Amino acid sequence: MSIKLDDRQMRILNFLLENDHTTYQELAEQLQVSTKTISKANANLKTVVEKEINLQIVVQPKKGVSLVGDKEDLRKLLPDFEITKVDTSEDRITYVFAKLLNTTGSLKIQDLADELFVSRSTMESTIKEVKKRVMKHGMAVISDRNGLKINAGEKGKRKLMSEVLNYYWGGFTASSNKSDLLDLNINLLGETNNFLDKEILKKVAMILNRFMEETQLQFTDYEFQTLAIHLAIALERIDSNNFLLQEGGTEKEILENTSYLIDMLEQAFHFNIPKYEQEYIDIHISAIEKNAMNHNLSETTLPNLDLGEQLKQLVLDELNEFHADAELINNLVLHLNAAVKRLRLGVNIHNPYTEKIKSSFKQAFFLSVNLLEKIEEQFLVRFDDDEIAYVTLHIQSFLDRYRPNKSEVLLVCSSGYGTSKLLEQRINRTIRFFIH
User: Rounded to an integer, what distance in angstroms lies between the CA atom of residue 217 and that of residue 301?
Assistant: First the structure.
């Protein structure tokens, strides 16, 4: 038996177990919320408890609230309860994402506020942030008299599903058996469980682990996570007859390793994966084959990469003043070659550390933005902040190695101390790597 309660409902249930009688006022003081919020939470809790357990939550005038039935049976079941938390603004945003993706109709703002026990104004702020993020992916949340709904095709919905799942996955640590990590690192909220069966994700992880062993391909932890989520969503959507629409162009030949993985998936899930879906899987495998873990960088010949020479020239031109070394050039070109191919097909990757990278490595992020603007112009793709942050790590690694001979500078300014400090700041901002 799997009974799902939110954190607030669980606290109410524990209090009722320990006290024969209580009141909404006492519960409100214990949980530091209003009596109205307690009333809503208790009504939802009553529905779950009376349906799943042989117990009743009785509310009587003057006597208050009490549990009626065998409390010992409930105590034995408590360790098996699944507790979901929606405490932070990010939790609320992700919950609303999942809710919108799970419905074909419209959702009322007040209903969402009631579900999460927050005020309407708090939910309106949450919706505003959801709209921004949906717009970032080239889609929209439509508001009308019926409520809210996402206006997106199958490709767009899958992008948003990936973003939600990445949020719940959490961090990784290295392991020789990555499927072991899945159960420890992904804890799906109730609504998210409705668009992805966690068992499918586990099955995909086991297949990927076997694929790694048999092909000897090495995945980074994040490549493993991204591909597992992509495959799990794609397989569930294909099985429910939700297919990506074929865009213009001829069919492309897929890699040998991709073909091998597709055979493994089709045998395990007992249905065929359409050719166009296979091409998306091929993008991931192509990127993995070209990552530094699967190459001896000293032996990597950039002309063998599809876009190698063009990307190499752009990197050299943009980072000319820093005298980029071979390690930086090879790492960047390998990364960007796969990234451009991904972005041309609309496949983005999530970066859980983007904000930290932006604040910690400002100079490297600035250089990455300039470099990627040139690449965007030449290849007609768009790099968002998550993509820029990955490039930033390559450039920051180089800057940590890069130690040019710095010159001593004496700044003389006849306009006064204030002007000289302003000049000092501007000089440091533009050429700080070359001066003391």
Answer: 19
The fold of 3-84 is: Arc Repressor Mutant, subunit A (1.10.10)
Pick the CATH number of 302-401 from 1.10.490.160, 3.20.20.140, 1.10.1790.10, 2.40.30.10: 1.10.1790.10
CATH class of the structural domain 89-152: mainly alpha
As a whole number of angstroms, the distance between CA 1 and CA 362 comes to 50
Q: Is the predicted pLDDT of residue 178 greater than 60, yes or no?
A: no
Give this prediction's pTM: 0.56
Q: Where are the domains of the chain?
A: 3-84, 89-152, 159-290, 302-401, 407-435
> Per residue in 66-120, pLDDT tens?
888 877 777 777 766 665 656 677 778 878 888 888 777 899 999 888 878 788 8
Between CA 116 and CA 119 the distance in angstroms is: 9
List all residues 6 or more positions away from 125 whose beta carbon is below 8 Å from its beta carbon: 89
Is-same-fold flag (3-84; 89-152)?
A: yes
Using DSSP's 3-state secondary structure scheme, residue 332 falls into helix
Return d(Cα 188, Cα 334) in angstroms, integer: 34
The Cα–Cα gap between 154 and 99 comes to 16
Contacts of 227 (CB under 8 A, 6+ apart): 208, 219, 281, 284, 288
Q: How far is residue 313 CA from its own chain's centroid?
A: 32
Instruction: Name the fold adopted by 159-290.
Output: PTS-regulatory domain, PRD (1.10.1790)
Read off the pLDDT of residues 134-153 as tens digits, 9 standing for 90 and up: 887 778 899 888 899 988 88
